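Subject: mismatched residue count in predicted assembly?

I count 293 residues in my input, but I want to confirm that the predicted structure covers every chain. Input:
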Amino acid sequence: MKIGFLTCPGTHPGSPTRREDAYEHDFQVDAIRPELEKLGHHLVEIDWRAPAETFADIALAVVGTPWDYQDDEPAFLAALHGIEQAGCQLCNPTQVVRWNSRKTYLRDLEARGAQLIPTIWVDDPSADDITNAFGTFACDQIVAKRQVGAGAQGQSIHSRRTSDPQWRMDRPAMLQPFLPSVVEEGEYSFLFIDSELSHALLKRPIAGDYRVQSLYGGTEVAITPSAADLAAAQSIMMALPFPTPLYARIDMVRGDDGALLLMEAELIEPYLYPLQGPKLGPMMAAAIARRLA
Ligand SMILES: Nc1ncnc2c1ncn2[C@@H]1O[C@H](COP(=O)(O)OP(=O)(O)O)[C@@H](O)[C@H]1O
Ligand SMILES: [Mg+2]
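Triage response: the counts match. Full output below for your records.
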């Protein structure tokens, strides 16, 4: 059967506007495609903006590397809905994508028992909120992030001593204590396929930065998680308010008491770090085949 893998102009092979990090798209496709072929399925890359008819003969479409969806989220959600309407199974489904596109989903997970980084949610944040957060969290550094955002865009760090009284963010924000473990230890990613662990890794920022993304010089190494750390990640999977997703990347950092806390549960188009996890391709192909059976 034909399996679709959604792309965008920044990641689609041969596109004249491919991004510098489009090689990550290639790593993912190279991990999955041959494993699907072994099971008799054929992977085709399709731009998410392609007309819905394109999906008429596609049995299942993976939300792969549509890494520009934030630029036009309503159109993206409409396109995903159209793909499902065309009779194509979408992984992860539109409903999951919609839920995961605002970080307020973290509150749903918290209500279901997930241990988050302590967070204050503010719709119209100002310097007063930052000042209050220093008190609430009893800490000297605060991270302010957008409730809708990715790639650390619009994110800022505030210190008690150098706090800017004019600071504003013109959109809903989340305020968190700065966790030094991100710099001292790194941020963990746990990759789950159909809720089974494929692999885990540790992402570390470059000296002088606290952002772990490769875009800012961060690097990653495969690790074998401790039983307690793996259980913490699995408890997040169990808190998801819908049936098991095809793929999930659970990003966690260590809190001051030694337990891992949830940073993000990425269910839309995360990079799946296939180079750190040789099991990823075979597990993904098997999970897709199960969904077609
Ligand atoms: N509370 C925090 N303490 C320390 N570092 C943080 C904190 N929150 C975010 N970061 C850093 O910023 C990066 C981006 O934040 P994240 O919540 O993952 O948003 P996104 O990846 O969607 O932009 C993280 O990977 C981490 O390096
Ligand atoms: Mg992140």
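The chain is about 30% helix and 25% strand. Marking this ticket as 'not a bug'.
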